[in-house]
Amino acid sequence: MNWISKAVGLYAGIEWGLRDITFLSPFIFSSNKGTFYVQVCTHYETKVLINDYTSSVDYYVLIIKNKDGDNAVLMKHEDISSHRNKSVDFKWIAKHLKKKWRMDFRQSTTAT
Known about the structure:
alpha+beta
């Protein structure tokens, strides 16, 4: 099972100084600063569908794997909670992001 929360949680620990990181699920991790939900998606014509995630998180990390440049953003739960299960465009995301960075993805292969 791929746990994207581990990759983002470890990055956040190094870059943002988060401590006491605990991985709660493949998409959720917690730290001394709060609980984070991680979504990996693709965009279509500058629009992204926001998952209907659990409301018990403090932050939402959105990683758009087919976007050039900075493709990962951090947003607060209160900024995004009313947009769950809805499409938002890049302009809306830009108005609500707290941090942005680049994450590269590579297809992994499994030897059989």
